[in-house]
Amino acid sequence: MPTPPSRTVARLFAAALVVAPAALGSASPSSATSPSTWPAAARPTPEPPVIADPVPELDPPITAVGTGSARSAGRPTAARADDPLRLHSRPGSPHTIYLDFDGSDLGSTKWAELPNTPESAVVPAFDTDGRPGLSIWEAGLVEGIWHHVAEDFAPFDVDVTTEEPPAAALSRSGAGDPTYGTTVVFAHDNWVRQWCRGCSGVAYVGVYSGAGTDPWRQALVFPDFMTKRVVQTYGVGDIARVIGTTASHEVGHQLGLHHDGLRASSPRGAMPYNPGRAPWGPIMGSTSQVLTRWAGPDAAYTDNPEDDLAVIGSQLGLVPDELPNLPLLPGVPLSGVISSAEDTDTYLVTPLTRSEVVVVPDEPFANLDVVLEVTDVLGRSSLVAPVTRLRAGRLSGLGATTSLLPGGVYQVTVRGGETPGVGRYGSLGRYTVQLR
Q1: Contact predicate 201/42, CB 8 Å
Q2: Are residues 373 and 271 in the same domain?
Q3: What is the pTM of this model?
Q4: Are residues 283 and 194 in the same domain?
């Protein structure tokens, strides 16, 4: 197995950099409890806490979930899908996560107050080849990152977009303002990354839904840790996955989430970032697993009592549930979202010939492990829950298929499956169901 070129960098930044919390709006700055590797002049004193995340380990190399392309059925809605900078996951939502790939002026943000800020606090547009505009490869990478983040937030009422929204869609004037959001800036090596000593991302904690927090609302993700050798070794699917997970991780901080680590009693001992158990890992832990999800307080050996889904849902709300018992007609796919561990979606099927019901999660970045239950008119039920397998870096078994005999009436139920150590928690997201 090839040795990842990022491993050396990752070992140089083995733990997160954390500034001690202080109340938002406090007149006195927070006290620094940063590691000794921080130069004294670079220790910030923001009101909200700020967390800088290390470069993730990328060993072993991981292939994106499933075999579908980024344009497979069940993907988030894409307005102007031909333009990677006009993608939307839920147009019309009052909440926004803006993935900023076309450059940003951070002069009015708290990042411009760092002691090493240059005269122009401008972040140039996302670029990997030094040429103006997005190449075909870069456009595919942008869409893959967007798709990954959109799937992480699929259960929630939020529009993940690459199109710059009006300022009013991001700012919150007060508790009565229902329309607000945040920005994730994808930046090259700059003064902020120099300040955090080569981190992969940085964000202020708990600023997403607060009023008057505009100067803190910009998280930064630094794709520069993806060197040319990493590109050649891991491929575009892995790059989109790791960068996308990093972006979701930073938005998690903005929503008030902290790191998922491991207790000292775990078989691996105490760890600041929970690496998970292949193929699963928590979004707020390490980003090295192929299947990263939000995690709860019952995850095995976690040192974090936070209920990720409850924290996020209290600010964004959940998407409306699908109507029960929708008729499923041959050749007419329907889309749905599993938004909680208790959520089940039901469909009625009356096949005229021998048929199959096929449920496909939102590949290639699915979080949902599908369980399919079929019940006939006599109340007899059968479960279809394929075993999820990770072989040669490829994950299979997230979807489900079952055969139906003609002439019957069946109720088909879709829900999330279980993962060892975490149960059904986090097995959420979009899917497509069809009769064929």
Answers
A1: no
A2: no
A3: 0.83
A4: yes
Amino acid at 235: G
Token output for 429 = 């997201």
* Any domain includes 20: no
DSSP state of 163: S
CATH number (domain holding residue 87)? 3.40.390
Distance separating alpha carbons of residues 138 and 64, to the nearest angstrom: 17
Decide: 340 and 426 in contact? Cβ < 8 Å.
no
Per the DSSP assignment, residues forming a β-bridge with 104 are 123
- Using CA atoms, how far residue 7 sits from 164, 199, 357, in Å, is 35, 13, 44
3 state SS of 414: strand
- Residues 336, 275 share a domain: no
Tell me if 41 is assigned to some domain. no
Residues contacting 263, CB < 8 A, separation 6+ = 270, 301, 302, 303
> How far is CA 360 from its chain centroid?
19
Which tokens in the block code for residue 364? 């290639």
Nearest to 62 by CA among 239, 223, 228: 239
Question: Would residue 3 count as lying in a domain?
Answer: no
Helix or strand holding residue 122 (H, E)? strand 122-123
Paired residues of 68 in beta bridges: none
Residue 366 lies in a domain: yes
CA pair distance 153, 162, nearest whole angstrom: 14
Pull the structure tokens for residue 127. 């670029």
Does residue 279 have a cis peptide bond before it, meaning omega lies within 30 degrees of 0?
Answer: yes
Ordered per-residue pLDDT tens for the chain, 436 residues: 333 333 322 222 222 333 322 222 322 222 222 222 323 333 333 457 788 877 654 433 333 222 222 323 334 544 445 799 999 999 999 999 999 999 999 999 999 999 999 989 999 999 888 888 899 989 999 999 999 999 999 999 999 999 999 999 999 999 999 999 999 999 988 999 889 888 889 999 999 999 989 999 999 999 876 655 456 555 666 788 889 999 999 999 999 999 999 899 988 999 988 888 888 889 999 877 888 999 999 888 899 999 999 999 999 999 999 899 999 999 999 999 999 999 999 999 999 899 999 999 998 889 999 999 999 999 999 999 888 877 766 778 899 999 998 888 999 999 999 887 778 999 999 999 999 9
Spatial CA neighbour of 80 closest among 170, 161, 181: 161
